[in-house]
């Protein structure tokens, strides 16, 4: 029989071997208990620090949604989120899917498979949660935007008020008057996005007038300029916004190829008073 090298057994005593064997037996008994624990006992089990114990708990048929939600409130779970995702019975619960998506230790490559299964307003909630990683935030935002064309008007109005900057920008591009009006009050709406919208084909006379009446936006120089450069802007807004503009700005407006003859005539009249 080949002798075991001394350097592999150095410092190992019979007591060490006995201790290791005893530890193994204790773990084995714990795992057996976990596999047969009832529902009440499982609430204690899911607070266990041992990864082996938690993995065994996932195999217990008594483990249900409430146990998993309690487990997914913890940190330091290691491979547990991935193990839950791979278990068809455990992942059936909507609440568990949502808890997995928001858990920082869920592997990022698993998240895109769950996002299409979440309600659109839960995706909005996800984007607003502190601690969500940038990748999950971006993926949730994309999922919302992809669904916008098929949403009913009521949902679009709610999303216009509560959505992220990217969601609001996408809603503006649809050009629905009621939705545009709701977007203007969203605190995440950026001036640059609104400027681009006013320069687009979706900025109809009605939409331009909605922006021009907005107490939040109508006083901003860049927004006023975008309004005055739109060929669909009603004459009333030229009358309101042209007075007080510098002569150089008026000359730029006269040189704009986008303005109609009637709009340019209003600019000429304002220039004569300079």
Overview in brief:
With 274 residues, the protein is mostly helical.
N-C termini distance: 109 Å
Mean pLDDT, as a whole number?
Answer: 90
Tally of DSSP helical segments: 19
Structural class: mainly alpha
Order of helices and strands: HHHHHHHHHHHHHHHHHHH
Percentage of residues in DSSP E strands: under 5%
Give me the Rg, rounded.
Answer: 31 Å
Number of strands: 0
**Residue share in helix:** 55-70%
Main sheet record: none
Shape: rod-shaped
Poorly predicted runs: 1-10, 16-21
Quaternary structure type: single chain
Give an account of the 3D structure:
The protein is 62% helix and 0% strand. Residues 1-10 and 16-21 have low confidence and may be disordered. It has a domain at 34-118. The N and C termini lie far apart (109 Å). It is rod-shaped, with a radius of gyration of 31 Å. With 274 residues, it is mostly helical. The longest helix has 23 residues, at 14-36. It is built from 19 helices and no strands. Helix 14 packs parallel to helix 16 (221-228).
List keywords for this structure.
274 residues; single chain; 0% strand; disordered N terminus; mainly alpha
List the helices and strands and how they pair.
Elements: H1 6-9, H2 14-36, H3 39-45, H4 51-57, H5 65-71, H6 80-85, H7 94-102, H8 111-114, H9 120-128, H10 134-147, H11 153-162, H12 165-174, H13 177-183, H14 191-198, H15 205-213, H16 221-228, H17 235-241, H18 247-255, H19 261-272
Helix pairs in contact: 2-4, 9-10, 10-12, 11-12, 11-13, 14-16, 18-19
């Amino acid at each position: 029989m080949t002798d075991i090298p001394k350097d592999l057994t150095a410092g190992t005593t019979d007591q060490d071997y006995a201790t290791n064997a005893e530890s193994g037996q204790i773990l084995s008994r714990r795992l057996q208990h976990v596999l047969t624990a009832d529902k009440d006992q499982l609430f204690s089990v899911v607070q266990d620090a041992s990864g082996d114990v938690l993995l065994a708990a996932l195999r217990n048929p008594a483990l249900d949604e409430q146990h998993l939600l309690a487990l997914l409130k913890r940190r330091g779970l290691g491979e547990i989120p991935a193990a839950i995702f791979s278990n068809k019975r455990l992942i059936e619960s909507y609440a568990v899917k949502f808890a997995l998506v928001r858990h920082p230790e869920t592997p990022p490559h698993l998240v895109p498979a769950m996002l299409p299964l979440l309600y659109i307003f839960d995706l909005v909630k996800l984007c607003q949660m502190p601690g969500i990683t940038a990748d999950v935030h971006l993926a949730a935002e994309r999922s919302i935007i992809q669904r916008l064309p098929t949403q009913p008007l009521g949902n679009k109005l709610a999303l216009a008020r509560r959505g992220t900057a990217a969601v609001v920008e996408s809603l503006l591009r649809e050009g629905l008057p009621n939705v545009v009006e709701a977007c203007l009050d969203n605190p995440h709406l950026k001036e640059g996005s609104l400027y681009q919208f006013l320069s687009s084909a979706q900025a109809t006379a009605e939409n331009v007038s909605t922006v021009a009446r907005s107490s939040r936006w109508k006083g901003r120089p860049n927004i006023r300029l975008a309004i005055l450069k739109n060929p669909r802007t009603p004459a009333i807004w030229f009358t309101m916004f042209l007075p007080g503009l510098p002569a150089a700005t008026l000359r730029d407006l006269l040189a704009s190829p986008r303005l109609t003859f009637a709009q340019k005539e209003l600019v000429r009249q304002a220039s004569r008073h300079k």
